[in-house]
Amino acid sequence: MSNPIFIHEDQVKKLLNWDSTFDAVEAALESVYNKRAVQSPRTFTQSTTSKTLLLTMPGHLDNERFGALGCKLVTVAPDNINLEHPLPTINAQILLFEEATGILKAVVGGTEITKWRTAAASAVATKHLKPKEFQVLAILGAGVQGRIHAICFNHFYDFKEIRIWNHNVHKAETLVQELNQVYNCQKFKCCQSNEECVRGADVVVTATFAKSPIVQKEWLKDGVHINAVGAGLVHHSELSESIYQSSHVYIDHWAGAQTELAGLGKLGVEFKGEIGGVITGDLPPPPLDQVTVFQSLGMAAEDCAMARLIYDLFIQESNMN
Length: 321
Ligand SMILES: NC(=O)C1=CN([C@@H]2O[C@H](COP(=O)(O)OP(=O)(O)OC[C@H]3O[C@@H](n4cnc5c(N)ncnc54)[C@H](OP(=O)(O)O)[C@@H]3O)[C@@H](O)[C@H]2O)C=CC1
Ligand SMILES: O=C([O-])C1=[NH+]CCC1
What we know:
Layout: E1 5-7, H1 9-15, H2 18-33, E2 37-39, E3 43-46, E4 53-61, E5 68-76, E6 90-97, E7 104-109, H3 111-129, E8 136-140, H4 144-156, E9 161-165, H5 169-182, E10 188-190, H6 194-198, E11 203-206, E12 225-228, H7 241-246, E13 248-251, H8 254-260, H9 262-266, E14 271-274, H10 275-280, E15 292-295, H11 300-320
Parallel strand pairs: 1-7, 8-9, 8-11, 9-10, 11-12, 12-15, 13-14, 13-15
Antiparallel strand pairs: 2-4, 3-4, 4-5, 5-6, 6-7
The structure holds NADPH dihydro-nicotinamide-adenine-dinucleotide phosphate and 3,4-dihydro-2H-pyrrolium-5-carboxylate.
């Protein structure tokens, strides 16, 4: 019996690319809708001696290119940011199993994968729910997800302006400066308030730990698309209730939504369906003048697809050397 391979974060980082990530995530979202993926509900284990939360996310995906049986273990430790030497808030590993035998074949660093696949899921949802009219992108949150969303959306879409707001404005200023320098442009702009950031935007991303709404309905332009990524108290704490009640809301997976978004159900919010249904064409695209929300929870199927992608690239590269 061979020992499992360890693919560390720095190796994962070198193997990641946006186009394959997009394909893997799109395949995962479609497979969940087509019932070619199995995702047992994720579990949440709260440490009683710290703020750290451990999530276990088992999944299986039946797909020629991205199929895999795996389990992501991911921790959320909000205080990491305040350490003398700050660490990422979200850290993960993905266990990948041989399907026929159940033997562990690889442990794949999951922190970069979580970053990339989450931004790619927002990009996939945006492609299917807001097919054109990109001028202005508003990103609320300048942490790990805010940054990777800026990079991902700049890769896939031709926004004229990418605005970034953070409740601590200095952090947004630093990120904007970095991105304008890296891409040798001036399209990244720092906003002093969340309202200034959102007003007039065509696409909005929320990626914070905000426990109360940071986006209000009256700030939204007709036809805006929102990718709601962050979770404060719950996964729907970043947008005001009236946004959810008046817009077309799509989710990544029903099973997760039934438990983790139960609060929205109590407010009378009816989900239009899984984004996978829009990808397959079974669900009609929303009218262009309607506000749309992609409520992203994150799925094991995305992580399995990504771990398989990285595993295959790692083996290919090892065989070449
Ligand atoms: N849907 C999905 O698949 C995934 C969702 N997530 C979620 O995305 C969110 C961001 O994660 P990540 O970027 O990795 O975390 P980071 O810690 O890197 O960033 C968090 C950001 O939220 C800001 N923030 C913290 N508290 C508040 C507040 N009360 N109001 C407004 N902004 C606040 C922080 O600002 P500052 O540092 O200045 O305080 C920072 O910009 C989290 O809620 C996380 O759970 C993450 C991964 C996957
Ligand atoms: O899907 C995911 O990995 C996560 N969602 C929220 C925190 C981590």
